[in-house]
Amino acid sequence: MDPTQAAPIEAHDFSFLGLFFQADPIVKGVMILLVIASIACWTVVFEKIVRLTAARRQAKAFETMVRTGGTLDTTLPGLAGHVVNAAVEAWRDQDASETRAERRERIERAMRVALGSEIKRLKTGLSLLATSGSTAPFVGLFGTVWGIMNSFSSIARSQDTSLAVVAPGIAEALFATAIGLVVAIPAVMAYNKLTGDVGAIQSRFTTGIALLGNRLARDRGAQHRAAAE
To answer: Which segments constitute the MotA/TolQ/ExbB proton channel domain (predicted)?
Structure first.
């Protein structure tokens, strides 16, 4: 063999799986971490879609009951039921010395507390989306920096600055950044959308609570006056 002839360059697999399996162990660990984060984020997204869809139906049922003057004996599902039960308990806890404004505030406060605890449950998991959206690009960037460092080490060892030597390591490194962006972008978009949906549901309940609190305070006041007569 002619010693002046260049040795054949080993073919490098630039497919997604190839870039993963041929990556440095640290870079590979970064990729695995990001994939796990992506799976967790999508699990939260699908779970929230189901729960918020049900919560919107419950908010609509609560609004309908309040605006049409429906009785509180009506069984409402989920979130709406918890709010109504809190209102009924506060309404039954009567005090003849209360003014109408004090009675209304007490009833509304009980409903707001019940609503707040349920909204807190709806928000569970959204912090994961926020954290993943803000940190995933930097985790991917860490993998990229580490991979590029390995590429420079390969150049130093081989004394060859050709693209064939540098390209595989750089491709693996950039693949880590790409995975980080694939995790972060949907996570941020989902967080913004789901947070807005939770806020809209809470606003609808808050409006209904004000109307229902006024109505219950008025009804209880009328009962007190009738009893006094």
So the answer is: 99-205
- Contact status, residue 196 vs residue 122, Cβ threshold 8 Å: no
Q: How far apart are CA 163 and CA 24, in angstroms?
A: 19
Backbone angles phi, psi at 5, to 5 degrees: -80, 135
3-state secondary structure of 140: helix
| Alpha-carbon gap, residue 147 to 166, rounded angstroms | 10
pLDDT tens digit string along 184-215?
999 999 999 999 999 999 999 888 888 888 88
**Where do the structural domains in the chain lie, given as residue ranges?**
16-63+79-228
pLDDT digits (tens, 9 = 90+) for 113-159: 989 888 999 999 999 999 999 999 999 888 888 888 777 776 777 66
- Contact assessment for residue 205 and residue 79, using Cβ atoms and an 8 Å cutoff: yes
Q: Which of 9-23, 126-140, 167-181 has the highest mean pLDDT?
A: 126-140
Q: Which residue has the tokens 């080993």?
A: 10
The DSSP secondary-structure symbol of 229 reads -
Query: Does residue 31 contact residue 176 with C-beta atoms inside 8 Å?
Result: yes
Q: What is the C-alpha separation between 23 and 29, in angstroms, rounded?
A: 9
2 SS3 class: coil
Closest among 207, 214, 216, 197 to 57, alpha carbons compared? 197
How far is 208 from 205, CA to CA, in rounded Å?
A: 5
**Which of 149, 147, 150, 152 has its CA nearest to residue 172?**
147
Residue showing tokens 């409903």:
111
